[in-house]
Design brief:
Distance between the termini: 83 Å
Largest sheet: 8 strands, mixed
Structural class: alpha/beta
Mean pLDDT: 78
CATH architecture of the largest domain: 3-Layer(aba) Sandwich
Order of helices and strands: EHEEEHHHHEHEEHEHEHEHHEHEH
Shape: elongated
Number of helices: 13
Low-confidence stretches: 1-60
CATH superfamily of the largest domain: Alpha/Beta hydrolase fold, catalytic domain
């Protein structure tokens, strides 16, 4: 049994070292009659610590060692047993964690029941757990400017059908909650600026976009930001299509109710919302409408590629069976139909989920006959999950892009 000795603070009159131990045994362990070599006091006591560095005790030997020590020194033995139990519990918890993660991956990407697969994919296409309140905004000016909106996709049944997205009664007749924030007219400007139709990402709600909403408002842009309809887990493909229908309905609502012509709208989205925005622009062109521009933040060609990029970060890309993922979110296909709408890609240079290469792949998909401006701007020190520090740069770059469209 390997034993490491270290200095302790014994109680007076109660030395922890057995005085009857032979002097030769102490000397062989590196202890002289005066204590450890280099220590001046012979009253120093020494407590064995099992499994020390250089002489690790196996998991199976620890209980036996602790019991042997318990017979000699009960209090120290109990402490040693407690340490062993804690180490064992920590090891078991770690194993359970990795087994759970592996099991989730297997359930997600390997052939399983359609119900389980639908549930896992449905966690990606989410609906809001709660609807944010304008009163939750910290900025007083923004809080007072927000005008809550409520509209139905059913009101645009004809346009949804003509766009190719379709309309399914009983599934698509759901209300959509939105905020409309009128922009402050900049000093010295007499011409109103475009209205931004914003689709947020999967991991956020419109209530968490305060910095961006305030930035656009201060620059004079009207903003309509909406929440996705609540998720249903019966048909994942229908849920995906309903995201696109919600975005198109928001654009049509801004045209018909807020009096914002399509030609004066900029369709903008982040991550999941960027794919929705690309599909909205494609649908609007099918209806014979041309929005002023498209801005895609942290975009990806297809959701399968986004999944693969994420898994490869942990060496788990081999687990992906792309053919079994029903959710497509195919921005590449949508941009291939873009014949005349200018596009701005904003991609974080520290984004490991959707790197700049994905924006470059999307840019290459735009047809050559589309002579409208298209550009990629890297967001410095920006990851995939945006925060308040990233919003000023996004607002400034979006404003510069929109202002440049007035020249063309």
């Amino acid at each position: 049994m390997s034993v490491q000795w270290f200095n302790a603070m014994p109680n007076a009159g109660s030395p922890l070292v057995d005085s009857s131990a032979p002097q030769a045994a102490l000397t062989q362990s590196g202890v002289s009659g005066n204590g450890i070599a280099g220590q001046s006091s012979h009253r120093d006591a020494f407590i064995p610590r099992f499994g020390a560095s250089g002489h690790p005790a196996s998991v199976l030997s620890r209980p036996r060692q602790a019991l042997n020590w318990l017979m000699r020194k009960p209090w120290e033995g109990l402490k040693q047993i407690a340490r062993w139990v804690c180490d064992l519990a920590s090891t078991v918890m770690m194993l359970m964690k990795w087994v759970g993660l592996l099991g989730l991956g297997l359930l997600t990407f390997f052939p399983v029941s359609s119900r389980v697969k639908s549930y896992v994919q449905g966690r990606f296409l989410f609906g809001p757990k709660h609807l944010p309140s304008p009163g939750s905004q910290k900025d007083k000016a923004l809080r007072q400017a927000i005008r809550p909106q409520l509209f139905q996709m059913e009101d645009y049944r004809q346009e949804l059908t003509r766009s190719g997205l379709g309309f399914h009664p009983g599934h698509d007749d759901v209300p959509l909650h939105a905020w409309y924030i009128p922009g402050k007219q900049p000093k010295g400007s007499c011409q109103p600026r475009p209205c931004i139709i914003y689709s947020h990402g999967r991991g956020s709600t419109m209530g968490e976009m305060e910095g961006m909403l305030k930035g656009f408002m201060n620059k004079g842009y009207d903003v309509l930001i909406y929440e996705y309809p609540r998720r249903q887990l019966d048909d994942i493909k229908a849920v995906e299509q309903r995201l696109f229908k919600a975005g198109l309905s928001a654009s049509l609502y801004a045209r018909d109710v807020l009096h914002q012509p399509i030609a004066n709208q900029v369709i903008m989205g982040n991550s999941l919302g960027s794919s929705v925005s690309a599909q909205v622009v494609s649908a609007l062109q099918t209806l014979g409408e041309k929005p002023k521009g498209l801005i895609m933040v942290s975009s990806f060609p297809k959701v399968q590629e986004g999944f693969l990029q994420y898994l490869n970060r942990f060496g788990l890309g081999w687990m992906l069976d792309a053919e079994r993922i029903d959710v497509k979110l195919d921005s590449r296909q949508a941009l291939q139909k873009n014949r005349e709408v200018p596009v701005l890609f904003l991609q974080g240079d520290h984004d490991k989920n959707t790197p700049v290469a994905m924006a470059e792949a999307l840019k290459a998909c735009i047809p050559a006959e589309n002579k409208a401006p298209r550009q990629i701007v890297k967001m410095p020190k920006t990851k995939h999950s945006l925060n308040e520090a990233d919003y000023p740069f996004i607002v400034d770059q979006s404003d510069a892009f929109i202002q440049s469209l007035a020249v063309h």
